[in-house]
Every structure is written in structure tokens, then in C-alpha cells.
Amino acid sequence: MRYSGWQVLAQGIMGNRGWRPAWRDPAPKDAYDIVIIGGGGHGLATAFYLASEHGLTNIAVLEKGYLGGGNIGRNTTIVRANYGLPGNSEFYSHSLKLWEGMEQALNYNVMHSQRGIINLFHSDGQRDAYARRGNAMINQGDDAILLDREGCRKLLPYLDYEQTRFPIYGGLYHKRGGTARHDAVAWGYARAADQRGVDLIQNCEVTGIDIEGGVVKGVQTSRGAIRARKVAIVVAGRSSQVAAMAGMRLPIESHVLQAFVTEGLKPCIDHVVTYGMGHFYISQSDKGGLVFGGDLDFYPSYAARGNLPMAEHVVEAGMTLMPMIGKARMLRSWGGIMDMSPDGSPIIDKTHVEGLYLNCGWCYGGFKAVPGSGHTFAHLIATDRPHEAAARYRLDRFATGRGLMDEEGTGSQHNLH
């Protein structure tokens, strides 16, 4: 079923009794050409592009819970391409272009809103750094505008520009950045992959990876063994645990990143605003809630839940930047498990096991990377060659030290990225 305005009108007249399920609920087959472990945004996007771009449809996506129940539904929904280093710059630019055509490609409303992102800076040194980043973005073919204090005040009049510790000097404005509806992205890719014949198998936990003579043969699951010629691991914060089933020790730490939302309010924040010195970022959802977040918890954890010390830390930063937020009532919070790499950049690569592929290490960048990750990972799986936009995301850079991409210049400590 294709969605359209006429279809919505017709279904409304008929009492919405004609809608069909968005995707099938198949039982797993004994064997597939490709098994994708992980039914989040990255895994579902990979399946879609394998089917739509490479004509491969004998594919199963295995999800231990429900589709979209992991990090794809536990983030602050920001989409951007404001990276500065070669490797990251090309990739996120590629991903943003896919975002801009996603709704047409999927025939699904993911509520992608290019409302613009403004990254604030608070010193002369930060201004220089953002000017360099903006020039790098423009050279890459993306957009960037350097705003002074009055330029920011015109767009963001509700901020405290005279805060004593970190007065606002200006901001880097990325107009094509914005937000999207996180779970709708998962549903859109799931529906489109299912329409092309991909089996989406929920409540199917992978418990082992079968390897013989250095070649992957399939997986063991809570619903039985499944043979496969190729197996792809795309499980975000669970990457280390699943890779261990194949005898691999990844350079990944898993940390909790919390997000928060307030009650619904009248429109008051037109952009995404980031406050680097307080590590705070905020936007307003289509339902009116203020969606915001901050630092991750600085200790490894697999607990996808929040805690009061970090909630206090994030709210303090929000109150410092925009005192008006104190009038809003917080509705709920949640936590996602981030797979943090040593240099803050992701991994999209083949492993030492023939037929086993790895996609992980997204740190804070997972949601904005969904289409780019799926597109380039599908290319790697289908052709056994890296896509040019993700050619630098090699796993061996952490063993050799060559090609490291420390985007933030914070060193090799996982939790600083």
C-alpha cells in the first residue's frame, strides 16, 4: 500500500478499516544469503539498500526485541553534516543528501525538518575553530554561515548572552541541518525493505555465530539455527558482546547517553541549538516538547536508563544557556547505549572472518548517519569493496595508528567522544 493524501482521506471516510500491516511478521527460514543482526535504523537501512540498490532480497534482519526499540528510538533526532575532518566530512555529507531524498525513496513521512543548526562558540579561539570548520564544510559542498553575537541574537533572542563564565560570541549556522522523527525512520526503512522481500524477524535473539575454517556459516538464535553466506553485525551499544561470539575483541566501550523531553509548548525554538561548553543541545519537536540532552555517563554501562546526577547536570546547562527553560515541566527521560570508539569515528569494515562484516562505533553520530551508514554498508556487503564515502572507516586503524580520525581533538579516551 502506498501512502498519499488521497489514501488518508479515503481511509478516514471508511473508518480506517482498510489499512494493511506496514510489514509482514514471517517465521525465520533455515537459510538466507545475508543475515543482518540488529533491527535498528542502521540495520534496516542496510537491508533496504541491499534490496533497492543491489537487487539482493534473500535477507533476514534479526532483532532480539521489536523493530526500532534500541538507539534509533532513544536519541535527540538531530540530522547534520557539519564535520570537519577528511573521512567524516565526505561521509556525513553523503548521508545528508540521502536524508533529503529519503521520504520520496521510502514513500514514508519521517518528519524530516531542515530547520537549521546553530553551534554556539564562546571565545576567540572557538570562533577561529568554527570558521575553519565552516570553510571545510563549504569546500565539501555543504552550507555554513558564521554568525556574530548580534546574528545569533536575531535568530535566538531567548538565550542568555551575558552569562559570566561562557558569554556567547556567535555561532556556526548550518541551514540544511535539522531533525527527523526517530521511530518513523525505522518504520519507513522497515516497510520499504519488507516490500522488497526482506524478512524482518522480531523477538529473535542471536546467541552464537557459526564459523568453520575462518568462514562464517550462519548464526544460532533463540528461534533456531539459521545458515547464511554473509553475516553483518549492526547492533550499536551491543557490538562488543555480539562480536565476542565470533571471537573478536573490539576497541569499543558502551556508555549511556540520556535524553529528555518537556511537556508540549507553543512553538518557541525554531532551530537546533548546541552549547558546547555546557555540552547541551536542544530543539522543539512537532508535538511541542523541548527535546534536549547533554554529556553521556562517564562510566561503561549497558543500562538503557537515566539517572538523577546526569539529569541535574544537563538541566543546569540548560538553565545557564536559556533561563526560560526553567518554566517548562520535564515529561520523561530515557537512555541509549552508545558504542564509543577510541577516536570518536565509526567502523564500517570486513572482519578477519570471511563473510562477517562490522558496523559500529557511532558514538554521538548514530542517528544522523542512518541512511549513509546503511547505504555504504550495503555496498560493502554486496561488493566486498568499501564505498568511497566510508573508505576511511577501517577497523585496523586502531591497531596500526594510521588513519585515526579524532574529530574533536580529545585523544584516545572513549568517553570523551
Topology:
Elements: H1 5-13, E1 31-37, H2 41-54, E2 59-62, E3 78-79, H3 88-106, E4 117-121, H4 124-140, E5 145-148, H5 149-155, E6 170-174, E7 178-179, H6 182-195, E8 199-201, E9 206-212, E10 215-221, E11 224-233, H7 239-244, E12 253-264, E13 272-275, E14 280-284, E15 289-300, H8 308-321, E16 330-340, E17 347-350, E18 356-360, H9 370-383, H10 397-400
Parallel strand pairs: 1-2, 1-11, 2-8, 4-13, 11-18
Antiparallel strand pairs: 3-7, 4-6, 5-6, 9-10, 10-11, 12-15, 12-16, 13-14, 14-15, 17-18
Helix pairs in contact: 2-6, 2-9, 3-9
The CATH superfamily name of the largest domain is FAD/NAD(P)-binding domain
What do the pLDDT scores average to? 95
Q: What coarse outline follows from CA principal-axis ratios?
A: globular
Q: Please give the CATH class of the largest domain.
A: Alpha Beta
Order of helices and strands: HEHEEHEHEHEEHEEEEHEEEEHEEEHH
Q: Helix amount, in percent?
A: 25-40%
Estimate the strand proportion: 25-35%
CATH architecture of the largest domain: 3-Layer(bba) Sandwich
Number of domains: 2
**Poorly predicted spans:** none
CATH fold description of the largest domain: FAD/NAD(P)-binding domain
- How far apart the termini lie comes to 42 Å
Number of strands: 18
Give the structural class. Answer: alpha/beta
Oligomer: single chain
Helices, by number, come to 10
What Rg is obtained from the alpha carbons, in whole angstroms? 21 Å
**Most strands sheet:** 8 strands, mixed
Question: What does it look like?
Answer:
The relative contact order is 0.18. The chain has 417 residues and is of the alpha/beta class. The radius of gyration is 21 Å and the shape is globular. The strands form 3 sheets. Strands 1, 2, 8, 9, 10, 11, 17 and 18 form an 8-stranded mixed β-sheet that branches. Strands 5-6-4-13-14-15-12-16 form an 8-stranded mixed β-sheet. The model has no long low-confidence stretch (mean pLDDT 95). A hairpin with a 4-residue loop joins strand 14 (280-284) and strand 15. It folds into 2 domains: 23-77 and 183-252 and 343-416, FAD/NAD(P)-binding domain (3-Layer(bba) Sandwich), CATH 3.50.50.60; 114-175 and 253-340, D-Amino Acid Oxidase, Chain A, domain 2, CATH 3.30.9. The chain has helices at residues 5-13, 41-54, 88-106, 124-140, 149-155, 182-195, 239-244, 308-321, 370-383, 397-400; strands at 31-37, 59-62, 78-79, 117-121, 145-148, 170-174, 178-179, 199-201, 206-212, 215-221, 224-233, 253-264, 272-275, 280-284, 289-300, 330-340, 347-350, 356-360. Helix 3 (88-106) packs across helix 9 (370-383). The two termini are 42 Å apart. It is 28% helix and 26% strand.
